[in-house]
Every structure is written in structure tokens, then in C-alpha cells.
Amino acid sequence: MMTTQYQKPRQQSYFGRFNIILSCLLLMGSTSVWAACKTEAEIPASTPTEQFVDHGDGTVTDTKTGLMWAKCSIGQTITDCTGTATPRSWRGVLLDADASALGGYNDWRAPNIRELQSIVEQRCENPAINEDVFPNTPSTNYQSGSPSGSDAANSWYVNFNDGTSLTGVRFQNASVRLVRGGQ
After folding, report:
1. What mean pLDDT value characterizes the chain?
2. Residue by residue, what is the 3-state secondary structure of the chain?
3. Using one digit for the tens of pLDDT, what is the confidence trace for 56-65?
């Protein structure tokens, strides 16, 4: 009798794990489930669409912070943010910022970590950003212009999969979104 009681939970556990694995595989195949935001009733939007002004030239302004952002990541087309974001090293970000004339402006720069965190949409994941404002944002690490205070070889990143901030080697490649104004 002890053997039967012991085997029965093991069988349920096996089938339970199988169902969990199967559910995960099914979810991975559906981007509408993976790339999701909680409803406004569950969590208020931290970056509501109404907070941004789209200038129609590849730039958007955050009326809350006064910052003007590149609508698309570096490497994507300016008009509709299609194409692949081009990962860049920290030095590459600085060079791209100096070379950019997006929207007719020549004072683009890498955002500091707080500025980059300001566009994280807290109720969304994969990506953790308002895709009405910043379409086709990859769910990857984004470079900031902020060096890590604890190690000169590191800088701060924001992971737009879940909106967390982390430090990493400054010379590793990551996606980039330029900003102007503020500071």
C-alpha cells in the first residue's frame, strides 16, 4: 500500500511536469501571449501613449521628462522601425550619437541610465516598453551612457525584456536608442 501511495504522486508529478512543459512550448509559439501588457486596471501605465508626441520625423518627445527620443533603435528604418537593431559597443554608441542628424538635430547622445529607465513600461514585458510609441523594440539589453561607479570597465544597461537594469562590460554590444535634451 505504501508503494501505491508513493507511485501515484510520482505519476501525477510526471504528468504535471509534462503539462507545464507543453504549456510553455505552446506559449512560446504565440507572440501575442508572450509580448503582453497587463491591463490598465491591473497596473497603471508608467509610459502612457498620451505622454508622448510623435513628430513624424523619427523622433518622439516625452512630455513628462522633456526628453526627445529616437523612435527607432539604431539600425532600424526611421519611418516604421522595421529591420534589425544594430548592437553597438559603448564606444560605438558615442560615435553613432555624434554622427546622428535625426530630425534635423545634431545634439543626440546616449541616454544616462535614469533616462533610459524612464521609458520602461512597467506593465509590459517582452518588450518592457510602450510599443505604440517605440514599435518593434527588441527585448534585449540597451546601452546607456552611464559608466558603472564600481568598475570603470563597466557601464549600465536596461534589459527591455523585463525592464531591469544591470551593469556589464562596457565593450560588449547592445542595442541603442538615442536621446537629446535633459540632463
Report:
1. 83
2. CHHHHHHHHHHHHHHHHHHHHHHHHHHHCCHHHHCEECCCCCCCCCCCHHHEEECCCCEEEECCCCCEEECCCCCCCCCCCCCCCCCECHHHHHHHHHHCCHHHCCCCECCCHHHHHCCECCCEECCCECCCCCCCCCCCEEEEEEECCCCCCEEEEEECCCCEEEEEECCCCEECCCEECCC
3. 999 999 999 9
Q: Which three cell numbers mark 89?
A: 559597443
Residue 81: all three cell numbers together:
522601425
Q: Show the cell assigned to 93.
A: 554608441
